[in-house]
Amino acid sequence: MKKALLVMGLLVLGASLVASQAKAGQVTGAIFTTLPDGSEVNFNIYAAKTDVYLNGGPGPGAPQSAAGLPDGVYVFMVTDPSGKTLLSQDIAACRRFTVSGGIITALVTSNPTCSAPHLTGLDADEPSAITVQLMPYADTRNNGGEYKAWATPVVDFLCPLTVVDCGAGKHGFQDSFSKTDNFKVKVSAIREIDTRFHNTNNAGALIDGMGITWFDTLGNSNQKWSYYNLSLDVNHEAHVEAPENGTHQIVIENQTGCTVDDVYLAGQRLPNIGPQTVLVKVSPSDKNITIVIDVNCN
């Protein structure tokens, strides 16, 4: 199902910066959208808004050593991909969950009281974890059917929990303290940024369990790991699904199993060698596109 790679004529911008220049103070770990049982769907495209649940933890493809979200209480929301329009419709108090041991374990429905808690599911891969339904949220006005899910620690949330929205930050969220994940509903167009890691000491064999940090166009971050899932057409890659228009950052660092050497964006070698930040521009005209970053590892 995956569309052919677009190498020639891509409207992308590649640049190299040292990884230490990535924004500081980011929340560690990852969030991701799933079905109620924690399973993934192809390309983060869901049949209905009610199918979309929030999951927390290291994320798909993460190695055993990967850390989940820091323990604590979080608030979540759904917006359009630009973050300008809040689509969540209930008060913030009803959009809280607890993380314990790096996974979501409970909703928070008191202090202040939430009279209409979100539905939850049980994560089939992690018996102690739950998933949280994102509904209720309004339809996006984005022509590509794209949405953005957010999560931030309650201690960093700027609005009163008793309101749906306020004028502080982005609906109470601060970019430097938020995790985001994009998803689509009822569309078939595919947009991806895929990062692949090659073992130069083993004929360029692809390596699973390698991590990247993705910064969206607003400066929010999330962690992704390379893995293989034939049924989802995930081919040994760390993939960012449904990236919105604008410039995204993919931070590539040295890690166990990969000392970064050459890096390629859409088949073009970037000028710097070693850990770096790759800038990827996604344009409105990019309807079906897979932008590939290839990392050579020593």
In helices, the fraction of residues equals under 10%
Instruction: Count structural domains.
Output: 2
Q: Given the structure, what is the number of helices?
A: 0
Main beta sheet: 7 strands, mixed
In total, the number of strands is 21
**Span from first to last CA?**
32 Å
Radius of gyration: 18 Å
Report mean pLDDT, rounded to a whole number. 91
- Strand fraction band? 35-45%
Element string (H = helix, E = strand): EEEEEEEEEEEEEEEEEEEEE
Residue stretches low in confidence (pLDDT < 50, at least 5 long) are 1-24
Structural class: mainly beta
Global shape? globular
Describe the structure in your own words.
The chain contains no helices and 21 strands. With 298 residues, the chain is mainly beta. The protein has strands at 30-34, 45-46, 53-57, 72-79, 96-100, 103-107, 120-122, 130-133, 146-153, 179-185, 191-199, 205-206, 211-215, 221-225, 227-229, 234-241, 246-252, 260-265, 268-269, 276-282, 289-297. A hairpin with a 2-residue loop joins strand 5 and strand 6 (103-107). The protein folds into 2 domains: 19-23 and 188-297, Immunoglobulin-like (Sandwich); 30-185, no CATH class. It is globular. Helices cover 0% and strands 39% of the residues. The strands form 4 sheets. Strands 11, 12, 15, 16, 18, 19 and 21 form a 7-stranded mixed sheet that branches. It has a 6-stranded mixed sheet with strand order 2-10-9-4-5-6, with no helix packed on it. A 4-stranded antiparallel sheet has the order 1-3-8-7, with no helix packed on it.
Summarize the SSE layout with pairings:
Layout: E1 30-34, E2 45-46, E3 53-57, E4 72-79, E5 96-100, E6 103-107, E7 120-122, E8 130-133, E9 146-153, E10 179-185, E11 191-199, E12 205-206, E13 211-215, E14 221-225, E15 227-229, E16 234-241, E17 246-252, E18 260-265, E19 268-269, E20 276-282, E21 289-297
Parallel strand pairs: 2-10, 11-21
Antiparallel strand pairs: 1-3, 3-8, 4-5, 4-9, 5-6, 7-8, 9-10, 11-12, 11-16, 13-14, 13-17, 15-16, 17-20, 18-19, 18-21
